Amino acid sequence: MPQIIKRPVQAALPGLAEMYGASVSEFQAMAEQLTEVWQVLDDAGEVLGTVALRPSPMHGAELMGGAAPGVHQLAVAGHLLQAAHGHQPQLYAYADPQRFPAEALTQAGWSVVGAYTLLAGPTPTQPAQCPAGFSIRPISESPDPDDWIRALASYEDRIGHHAVAPDRLPEAVRNWFDADVSVVAYDTAGTPAGLCRAAIQDTQASIDAPGVQPPLRGTGLRQALLLSVCERLSHRGVTHITLEAWGDTPEERADDLALGLTVQELTPIYAALVDDSSAGVRAPR
After folding, report:
1. Section 151-159 average pLDDT
2. Domains identified in the chain and CATH numbers
3. The pTM is what?
């Protein structure tokens, strides 16, 4: 019979890092966000799977780790999901065949609520049309960390995103991204309304899909941010981009595809189901 045990985060860190193809040192920053860890052991004490909770601003917690591939993967994944769900009823996880196969999540009663997508293609050249009442400028001209915090908060209601700790702000905004091509949008009051970050490697660039404050979605500001970044990238000789998105809507994805990008990867995000007594049905949270 498999044994399920709780472990200190640091004790399980090597196994978790290995699951993601990372070293312990590379995974350390992620580990600082983890709160609870469970492992499934076989009769000989061998670890068959590890899962950790990573708190999410609006979605309870993300499940990190999973069950190792093999004949027992589905059963082990089921035990891990049950253990985590007993502690935190609001959970989500990526349907990854190397960790949490979609079949295991479906068997546990979870349902698809979003996706991670990777799009790629030639750098779009359509002109950016900023909605009236907003302005867009490079992060290099927006040095106030409070602005970065407000801009990054535009992502926090989206499943798959996490709050950025103040001590991680430089990495999240400038160190990992190019401050001259990444941009922040401001309204007329000077309040940050959105953000789009990009990093350049030779003639290619990777972009995080724009974040826009919830009341401003559907105004065209999201695409204006993306195209503003692409314009700056073109001036730097970038001819090809990748665009990563977590929890974006089908409509937003359609807007990105209309710019000439194509889907390279799409990983569904599943969420645990909870009882909705007002509706008398079970629904994803």
Report:
1. 95
2. 3-109 (3.40.630.30), 118-268 (3.40.630.30)
3. 0.90
